[in-house]
Amino acid sequence: MTTTTIQPLVDVQPLPAIDTTRLFKSSSETWSPIDSFITNTNAINVILSSATADNDPPPELCSLVVLGYLSAVETYFRTLLSRLAHIDEPTTEALGQKQLLFSVAMKRPRESLAEALYEDSFASKKELKARLTEIGMKKLPEEIEAALGTYDSICHLRHCCVHRFGYLGNKNAYDLGLSKHHHLIGRIFSASSDDLADIADALQVFVKTCNNHIFRFIIDRTVTVQGSPEHEFEMSWNWTWEYKKDWRHFKRYYDLFALVRGHPSSASPKDTYLHFKKANASKVRDMASRRRTAAQPQQ
């Protein structure tokens, strides 16, 4: 019996061997998440500028740029929340019930184990709110809520770029607003340089806004936890409200949230501490009063 060989319709070369162990390099960067986010976004902007010169970018580059921008945002949140779990006891307590694959836990060193908790996606309004709820931010500030709509729209653009090579599908058209986008279904994402600049600016504003409010929520919560005798969680340390004594604890929070490499940069640790103390003045007085009462001998 003879076998008929059919001429292949498409010529196929031998499959290259891909050694993924050679595709990564070490990084010794220890910047704050917000510093890394700004640096990563600016690096994408440099690539975009050098590739386009005076012309608008082609659709393929538009998709890659949006992917890069959203990747920088997700990395910001993932790094911030994983590091926060190491330094903030209420966050560690809040994440205590979060599930983690045993195989992952066995392979990760203890100091980086919390990062494994955040393999979840942050690339939607719903997912981001769920992650913030996990650390206790159940009611978001109005500034974050107002910006989440824009963030979610950019996430839907990203979805087109990842899964449809930039082409707008039915679901994303619906999520973006079907009445305004139904006639665009099947068209490819093709933004001007100005459009991409607006997307980059919107994400920077969004991340900076989140950074400020998450810092305020987390640092104020340390006062609430320490100052409320009814609170179930007990911190292993207390604010003394003397900068020299509190510096070690406060600087861990400051270093996690402060913008050092960007302009304008964050206020100094001491100025930020003094503002933190002033903003919690009434709680400070209540804490001092309770401590004096507790120190008095019982009748």
How would you concisely characterize the structure shown here?
The chain is mostly helical and 299 residues long.
Notes on the protein architecture:
The chain is mostly helical. It has one domain. It is built from 11 helices and no strands. α1 (33-52) packs antiparallel against α8 (193-227), α6 (142-163) crosses α8 and α8 (193-227) runs parallel beside α11. The radius of gyration is 25 Å and the shape is elongated.
Instruction: Please give the alpha-carbon distance between the first and last residues.
Output: 108 Å
Number of helices, counting only DSSP H or I runs of 4 residues or more: 11
User: Shape, please?
Assistant: elongated
Written as H for each helix and E for each strand, in order along the chain, the element string is HHHHHHHHHHH
**Rounded mean pLDDT score:** 85
State the major sheet. none
Number of domains: 1
Residue stretches low in confidence (pLDDT < 50, at least 5 long) are 101-107
Helical percentage: 55-70%
Oligomer: single chain
